[in-house]
Amino acid sequence: MLLIGVKYQNKAADLNKQSIIKPVVISTWNHGVLANDAAWKILINNGDALDAVEQGVRTAEANPDVQTVGLGGFPDREGHVTLDACIMDHHNNCGSVAFLQHIKHPISVARKVMEETPHVMLVGEGALKFALEQGFQKENLLTEKSKQAYEVWLEKSDYKPIINIENHDTISMLALDENGNLSGACTTSGASWKMHGRVGDSPIIGAGLFLDNEVGAAAATGMGEAMMKTAGSAMVVELMRHGRSPYEACKEVVERIYKIYKNEPDLEWLQVGFIALNKQGEYGSYCLRPGFNYAVQTNTIKNKLINADFKIQ
Ligand code: ASP
């Protein structure tokens, strides 16, 4: 154990000698490309990572064709669109909303929770009341397209998540700004056809998102219950603290999750994916099954979509 510790310590020391790559923004799935564009405009103008991640993920929240986030998100099994989101800055400030209905930009409500209240998390009716007090508009988030998909689902009412298609497209974004500060955001309509009242990992600080400005940041997508059982994103950050690269840290947590679930029947419903970014501007990702991708933008990488490595077919 001691030897391993020394090895990782040396590695961390080596990293400190390298020049820091910044700014950097990474985010989950195809819609990460548009989100990165919005974030990048802020980052290259010397803006804060916090503003970058908020503005970045708002693009997915506002897009009715992204049916797993914000406006047009798939509803729960009772036909209600309920949203989860959280945000975190480089001072360990964080804000979160869960089971929030009728508000298109839960990420901005989460930021208001962080900045305008003494609390971290507001849920349901209380979150909605707070959002309205803050000037957010109440609107119908169930688009015709998502309503039709729900009606098709209702015919069988069979809860069988389809990996990488209907259930796993949370947008999680991590950014490192010119000042070397990290922030992260995560927003989702959660698992489609979920039980009414179900909250996933995405608004849970430590599960769907975590960062430590001395170390790095991590965020997740996929079956939220798995991230909650393992404190997934916090664990990725902790492993980076002990010298793992972002890629190694994501891989180790995915392997822990696999170990927990591997003997369950019909495991094909399970997908999890992590993205991570460290203080040096190095990034990495890993997922359980093929199909997860993420978008990266740096001064030299022009918003490229990368397929994450995976553990099993
Ligand atoms: N993690 C989200 C949740 O469980 C969904 C997803 O990313 O697919 O609510």
How would you explain this protein's 3D organization?
By secondary structure, the chain is of the alpha+beta class. It has a single domain (3-307), classed as Glutamine Phosphoribosylpyrophosphate, subunit 1, domain 1. Helices cover 35% and strands 21% of the residues. The protein has nine helices and twelve strands. The protein has an eight-stranded mixed sheet with strand order 4-3-2-6-5-1-11-12. The longest helix is centred in the first third of the chain and has 16 residues, at 2-17. It is globular and about 55 Å long. The two termini are 32 Å apart. Mean pLDDT is 92; it is low at 1-16. Bound molecules: aspartic acid. Aspartic acid is lined by residues 167-170, 188, 190-191, 200-202, 221-224. InterPro entries: Ntn_hydrolases_N, Peptidase_T2. This is N(4)-(Beta-N-acetylglucosaminyl)-L-asparaginase.
